[in-house]
């Protein structure tokens, strides 16, 4: 698609020779042309230079559509104004709203033209040639610079449109504001300013320019402005009065009414929004934005059946309207996945290269285990170079489901940072570790740490978790020891190292790690509780443990884990009544098997053995895989048998 047209060289026929650059504003209506090369290119360059030197008349600008008309580089005039020097060519950029065929307007245009220095004319010509060669950044740079320099509305308009085409948001905003400053009565300028201010999040100014555009008889993208505000409750409440004022000023403008309905919906005033959308439908039954918004409002109100009937009818009436069918399909995902899939199949038929639709259909088929259908769709996304990470992630999932571990790991490794990144790493490295290929997993983590040096901590922790899961505790401990050499300020790595030390029976390093963390955060209830609970294992450190747990409980009095530790501390000190009180409260707050084991043991020690058995049975019902409860039961029953044997002896 070509953005620019070359300057037209028109030979002198009768009395004039002129050079005019006619530039189309509609970016889709200019045929692509490659720059000249060789002898032809030299001739073209020579012709342009000759035309610049010989240009002698003014050619009025002919504009078809003021909303899309770019600047014209006019021809030099043989009658230079008094202030022109010998080294200047007189070039004009008439206003962007000149209308062809209107003698009065053309006369006015001629009277408003102003002289451009030859340097300006040459720069704009270079910009047009650059655009013709698809060097759009260079073209924008020249137009943007000249817009600021010349303060010419036509040049500013051209710079704005090029910047918007390139999504150069900062340049587009500044150019649009300059354009609207130079031509405040131009509805197209006001419209461009509204759009760019909306994208910049400056909604107050956007609304001001939107109102000016409406007052000038133009359009204003108020639904886009509203869409920017609806996700922020505070902002939506702030700008609602402004939309209401505009609606009162333009009560029959459908764009204004629908934008207000969007803001009412965002402010939880659904019924008012619904009434307004239905008023718009009465004024213009063919405007599909209104019933589409109505379906959203009905869903917000929990009236899904009405929304579904509305969308069914709309899809039947307008089967080629993709946005209606898409809304219908999204609603069906919650209610009828099979029918939703049918709608997405139809959408993909209508728009076969729409990557978003392809991905949606593929995900439905993936979630319903239709892997043979989902796979070619995901592979098509790779061919289109769209949603590649998502495609690799779900292709990996399909390979994993079909026991093709090699392909699964290959695809997981192709996933790039995003929503699926960590999960892809976790699942891929788990596959490698489960198959005994820890070396490749180690290599993968090394690559990740090199690729993302700012996230080394996270990858060390993921690798530690993996090694621990598969019983490689010593390797995990060694990895964390190595990691702390270059990341000794990481609290998470220190904590992981301490806990791994504890699992290996290295109590000294466990305590050193927790003491170091507590020196940095002395009021951390979790750390206090963790260290205190561990010290309860040693008869000579029970009082020290009680101090730590008491402080933790004061900081977090409703934490069931800390309450459990306090109960267990009293049990270890022989205060069984206090122990039972705390442990029963902890068990009420959290039906955890470890708390059940402790409570049962405290009840047993207090002579409430039948009640202890009931607590253990409840704990096992809730967690049949528990090892703590059977161990406690076995230990105490063995102790009971031993006591009976000693008594009998």
Task: Please tag this protein with its features.
two-stranded antiparallel ribbon, 649 residues, mainly alpha, disordered N terminus, 69% helix, 33 helices, 2% strand
Describe the structure.
It contains 33 helices and two strands. Helix content is 69%, strand content 2%. The N and C termini lie far apart (102 Å). The protein is mainly α and 649 residues long.
Structure summary:
This protein has 649 residues and is mainly alpha-helical. The chain has helices at residues 38-54, 103-112, 118-132, 136-150, 153-165, 169-182, 187-199, 203-215, 222-229, 233-249, 254-266, 270-283, 289-300, 304-317, 322-335, 337-350, 355-367, 371-384, 388-401, 405-414, 421-434, 438-451, 456-469, 473-486, 491-503, 507-520, 525-535, 542-555, 560-572, 576-589, 593-605, 609-622, 628-648; strands at 8-13, 16-20.
Total beta strands: 2
Distance between the termini: 102 Å
What share of residues is helical?
55-70%
Spatial order of the strands forming the largest sheet:
1-2
Radius of gyration, Cα only, in angstroms? 37 Å
Continuous helix count: 33
Low-confidence stretches: 1-111
Major sheet size, sense and barrel closure: 2 strands, antiparallel
């Amino acid at each position: 698609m070509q953005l620019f047209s070359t300057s037209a060289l028109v030979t002198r026929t009768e009395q004039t020779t002129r050079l005019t650059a006619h530039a189309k504003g509609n970016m889709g209506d200019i045929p692509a042309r490659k720059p000249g090369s060789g002898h032809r290119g030299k001739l073209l360059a020579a012709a342009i230079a000759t035309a610049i030197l010989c240009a002698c008349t003014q050619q009025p600008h002919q504009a078809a559509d003021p909303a899309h008309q770019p600047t014209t580089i006019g021809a030099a005039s043989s009658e230079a104004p008094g202030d022109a020097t010998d080294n200047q060519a007189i070039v004009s950029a008439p206003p962007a709203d000149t209308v062809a065929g209107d003698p009065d307007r053309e006369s006015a245009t001629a009277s408003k033209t102003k002289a451009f220095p030859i340097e300006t004319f040459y720069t704009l010509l270079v910009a047009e040639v650059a655009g013709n060669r698809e060097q759009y950044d260079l073209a924008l740079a020249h137009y943007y610079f000249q817009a600021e320099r010349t303060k010419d509305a036509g040049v500013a308009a051209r710079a704005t449109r090029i910047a918007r085409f390139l999504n150069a948001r900062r340049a587009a905003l500044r150019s649009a504001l300059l354009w609207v400053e130079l031509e405040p009565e131009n509805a197209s300028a006001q419209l461009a300013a509204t759009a760019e201010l909306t994208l910049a999040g400056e909604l107050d100014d956007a609304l001001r320019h939107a109102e000016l555009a409406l007052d000038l008889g133009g359009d204003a993208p108020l639904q886009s402005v509203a869409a920017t505000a609806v996700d922020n409750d505070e902002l939506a409440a702030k700008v609602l009065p402004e939309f209401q004022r505009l609606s009162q000023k333009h009560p029959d403008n459908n764009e204004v009414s629908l934008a207000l309905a969007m803001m009412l919906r965002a402010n939880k005033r659904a019924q008012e929004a619904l009434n307004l959308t239905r008023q718009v439908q009465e004024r213009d039954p063919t405007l599909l934005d209104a019933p589409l918004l109505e379906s959203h409002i009905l869903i917000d109100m929990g009236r899904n059946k009405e929304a579904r009937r509305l969308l069914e009818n709309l899809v039947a009436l307008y089967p080629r309207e993709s946005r209606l069918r898409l809304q219908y399909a999204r609603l069906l995902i919650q209610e009828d996945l099979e029918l939703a899939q049918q709608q997405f199949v139809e959408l993909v038929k209508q728009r076969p290269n729409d990557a978003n639709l392809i991905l949606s259909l593929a995900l439905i088929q993936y979630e319903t285990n239709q892997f043979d259908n989902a796979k070619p769709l995901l592979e098509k996304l790779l061919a289109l170079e769209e949603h590649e990470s998502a495609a690799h992630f779900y292709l990996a999932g399909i390979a994993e489901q079909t026991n093709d571990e090699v392909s699964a790991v290959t695809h997981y490794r192709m996933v790039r940072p995003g929503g699926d990144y960590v999960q892809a790493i976790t699942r891929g490295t788990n596959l490698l570790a489960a198959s005994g290929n820890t070396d490749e997993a180690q290599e993968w983590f090394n690559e990740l740490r090199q690729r993302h040096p700012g996230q080394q901590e996270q990858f060390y922790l993921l690798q530690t978790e993996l090694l621990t899961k598969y019983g490689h505790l010593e390797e995990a401990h060694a990895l964390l020891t190595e990691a702390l050499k270059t990341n000794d300020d990481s609290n998470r790595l220190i904590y992981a190292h301490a806990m791994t030390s504890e699992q290996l029976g290295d109590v000294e390093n466990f305590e050193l790690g927790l003491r170091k963390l507590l020196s940095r955060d002395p009021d951390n209830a979790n750390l206090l509780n963790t260290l205190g609970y561990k010290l309860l294992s040693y008869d000579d450190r029970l009082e020290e443990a009680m101090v730590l747990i008491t402080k933790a409980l004061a900081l977090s009095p409703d934490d069931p884990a800390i309450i459990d530790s306090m109960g267990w501390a009293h049990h270890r000190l022989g205060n069984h009544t206090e122990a039972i009180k705390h442990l029963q409260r902890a068990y009420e707050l959290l039906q955890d098997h470890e708390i059940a084991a402790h409570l049962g043991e405290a009840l047993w020690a207090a002579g409430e053995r039948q009640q202890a058995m009931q607590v253990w049975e409840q704990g096992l019902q809730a967690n049949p895989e528990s090892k703590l409860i059977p161990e406690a039961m076995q230990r105490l029953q063995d102790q009971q048998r031993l006591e009976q044997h000693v008594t009998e002896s």
